[in-house]
Amino acid sequence: MVIVRRVAFISAINKMKTMNLLHAPWLPFRLRNGDQEWRQLIAITDPDIVDFALPRADFQGAAYQLVIGILQTAFAPKDKKQWHQYYAHQPTNDELKLAFNTIEHAFELTGDGPLFMQDHDPLSQQKMNSISGLLIDAPSSKGIKDNTDFFVKRGIGEVMSPAMAALALFTLQINAPEGGRGHRAGLCGGGPLATLVMPSDEQSSLWHKLWLNVINHDIWRYDKPNFHDGSVFPWLAPTIESSKEGSEIYPSTEGVHPLHVYWAMPRRIRLVVDDESTQCLIGGENSENSENSEHSVRHYRTKTYGNNYVGNWDPHPFTPF
């Protein structure tokens, strides 16, 4: 029997309509004994945690890419020696918190100001779409309208907790296919294929699984990033609207940092968060939203012609071809 526990600070999500992905206990983890716990991100250093425990395979893979990206962005080792040091002895919570504090402003999922992986513009004039449209296996709106969703069925995720909505959003942004005129593709060729390095022992700690994919500065050299101007996190600046020629974003485009590859945002999306406690149709009873959360997500707004990434972005850290 799997025991699911929620650990500390859950009231931080319940009492406020703000949720910071670096500080809220929004991720489910699998412990070495098989239990599951919802913890803050700094729990990745706990040697008893061996994996994430997400309800969908695409969310599981996206969680790895998300957290590796965070570590590479805010906690990359300076050289091979330091990389080995942290592989042998994971950092303390205080060390991680200090690093995370440098980028926390970019990881607000809800609230005022720039929001994680969401358009700088609130898109308040755009119509609302079902949140299930963010899922890679959801039928298109045309398929639902024409009643042709025979094999890919509707209703698979029409209500989500903020946690599952965050993962649905991130999963789409990193894997975004070309979805018609003006729907821009992600950096990985519009496909969900990613390659990560994993230890041979499946019971290795989650920290070891993540850290194997973090690159030290001696191997990957880049200038010190600015975490406030949009060069790393594009949602901190207005979207480069791409309806006209000359708006393409290349790796060499001025104002684009190499770490941008982890945070590319081709789709213009804003989540619509409701003050309503409703069971999440993705996580079910194991969802953060199913018991005490006061918020849910049923809709999002979107607009075409977002950031248009072109050119040779290889090698992408998660794509070996």
In summary, what is this structure?
By secondary structure, the protein is of the alpha+beta class.
Low-confidence stretches: 7-16, 288-292
**Helical amount:** 10-25%
The percent range for strand residues is: 5-15%
Kindly state the mean pLDDT as a whole number? 88
Largest sheet: 4 strands, mixed
Secondary structure: number of strands: 9
Helical segment tally?
7
Structural class: alpha+beta
Rounded radius of gyration (Å): 19 Å
Order of helices and strands: EHEEEEHHHEEHHHEE
Give the strand order of the largest sheet, numbering strands 1, 2, ... along the chain: 1-4-3-5
Number of domains: 1
Distance between the termini: 41 Å
Shape by Cα distribution: globular
What does this structure look like?
This is CRISPR system Cascade subunit CasA. By secondary structure, the chain is α+β, with helices and mostly antiparallel strands. It contains seven helices and nine strands; from the N terminus they run E-H-E-E-E-E-H-H-H-E-E-H-H-H-E-E. It has helices at 11-14, 57-74, 80-88, 93-101, 141-145, 162-175, 206-211, and strands at residues 4-6, 19-20, 27-31, 36-39, 49-52, 108-110, 128-130, 268-274, 296-303. A four-stranded mixed β-sheet has the order 1-4-3-5. It is globular.
Keyword list:
CRISPR-assoc_prot_Cse1, four-stranded mixed sheet, CRISPR system Cascade subunit CasA, alpha+beta, 20% helix, 321 residues, 7 helices, 9 strands, three-stranded antiparallel sheet
